């Protein structure tokens, strides 16, 4: 399956608080993230895309052109510079956050998205099911 536009709601999360700690997110942000059930929305085609993360506390949005660095605030609330790429069924966000590298890989398939987040040797996984 290719990367597609759509809306997905989180159904499981493993290790996300530890990932947020690794990228430098404050304790309150980490605690809130553990209790939230975010929805992600991806829209676009070709080279231009927008990724939204909708949470109970705050929404985050980044519009990007594939392969071009873009400055934004990530869901951890920290300034980031990200470069997004697509390879088959994977959307990859390679970011610099607080001076360190972090990566989010969104793998699309079977009506779901598996997101794997890594930073400073810490890995977290979240699974989202399609709502569209």
Q: What fraction strand?
A: over 45%
Q: What is the fold named in CATH at topology level? A: Lipocalin
What's the mean pLDDT score? 91
**Overall CATH architecture:** Beta Barrel
What does this structure look like?
α1 (about 15-20) runs antiparallel to α2. A 10-stranded antiparallel beta sheet has the order 4-3-2-1-10-9-8-7-6-5. The two termini are about 15 Å apart. The radius of gyration is 14 Å and the shape is globular. It has 2 helices and 10 strands; from the N terminus they run βααβββββββββ. The chain has helices at about 15-20, 25-35; strands at about 5-15, 40-45, 50-55, 60-65, 70-75, 80-85, 90-95, 100-110, 110-120, 120-130. It has a single domain (about 5-130), classed as Calycin beta-barrel core domain (Lipocalin), CATH 2.40.128. By secondary structure, it is mostly beta strands.
Which key phrases capture this entry?
132 residues; mainly beta; 2 helices; 12% helix; globular
List the helices and strands and how they pair.
Layout: E1 6-14, H1 16-22, H2 27-35, E2 39-45, E3 48-54, E4 59-65, E5 70-73, E6 79-87, E7 90-97, E8 100-109, E9 112-119, E10 122-130
